[in-house]
Amino acid sequence: MSEEHKDTTPEAKTPQSEDLGAKTTSKNLKDYGREVFMAKNDPEGLADLHLEISMQYASLTEDYVNLKLQRANFWQVKEKKDENGKKPSDKAVENMWLLTPAGGKMEKIKYYLDGMEKLIGAIKTASVVNSLMANNKL
């Protein structure tokens, strides 16, 4: 395969926390999901996981906010006209942003945060079930 025809698309992989800029852990969503499932009957384990995920969520949210501010600055490119004297559309500017390293990182963080919200919801559900089961045993 010639050098100019190589596939340069990034591999579809689960982003690690260090890819996203998180400083708290190197676990990905699959690791957390597995741990939540394994701890579903362990209230203390669920509480620890909830704290750990919440800490990482807070860190990633801070990074996400900084990236949103960078995106706002990037939108100044919309005011620049191309060689035909036209300004780029909103969708074109958004796509240009996503192609930047910061834009790609922001998109990964967005979906990672969504996944973490689902995990936190699962932890809360498992905690409620554990509580109800404990009350029925009394």
Shape: rod-shaped
Q: What is the residue-mean pLDDT, rounded to a whole number? A: 83
- Briefly note the structural class of the backbone: mainly alpha
Count of helical regions: 5
Got a strand count? 0
β-strand amount: under 5%
Contiguous low-pLDDT stretches (5 residues minimum) are 1-14
Helix content: 55-70%
Topology as a string of helices (H) and strands (E): HHHHH
Give the N-terminus to C-terminus distance in angstroms. 69 Å
Rg, nearest Å: 21 Å
Q: Report on the biggest sheet.
A: none
General description of the model:
The termini are far apart. Helix content is 67%, strand content 0%. Helix 2 runs parallel beside helix 5 (101-137) and helix 3 packs antiparallel against helix 5. The protein is rod-shaped, with a radius of gyration of 21 Å. It has 5 helices and no strands.
Considering the chains and any ligands shown, give keywords for the structure.
single chain; 138 residues; mainly alpha; 5 helices; disordered N terminus
Brief account:
The chain is mostly helical. The chain is built from five helices and no strands. The longest helix has 37 residues, at 101-137.
Please outline the helices and strands.
Blueprint: H1 17-20, H2 29-38, H3 43-74, H4 90-98, H5 101-137
Helix pairs in contact: 2-5, 3-5
